[in-house]
Amino acid sequence: MITIINDAPENVAAFCATGEITKEDFENIVIPRVKKKVEQFNELNYLLYLDTDLSNFTLGAWFQDALLGIKNLTRWNRAAIVTDKEGVQNFTEIFSVLMPGEFKSFPKKNLYNALFWCQNGNEVETSAV
């Protein structure tokens, strides 16, 4: 299931992924929220707090995720993936070279820092968190 992180900064489309992730999660929650943010701010600042294994994403969810990226290709500004999975963190760093905008991974304990980075493009000092 994907839920909206409601206390995220206004210019950030922020989501939490838990359990099984389906195409309906993208169609009903992610895509409408992303569309609203892009229309409102003319760019996409996106955060995904990944609290599930990637194997829990259905094929339809992966397809919708790919479409989301393609449809908003020129609007990506900043995207943060928050996870403790090292493989996902490494993939995010590699992916950032291929996509427009900035992509960055953060460990789960740094969710606040990830939200701040999505909003502002810089990080808070870790000693201040």
UniProtKB/TrEMBL annotation:
Gene3D superfamilies: SpoIIaa-like domains
InterPro entries: SpoIIAA-like, SpoIIAA-like_sf, STAS_dom_sf
Source superkingdom: Bacteria
Source organism phylogeny: Bacteria, Pseudomonadati, Bacteroidota, Flavobacteriia, Flavobacteriales
Protein name as catalogued: Protein of uncharacterized function (DUF3478)
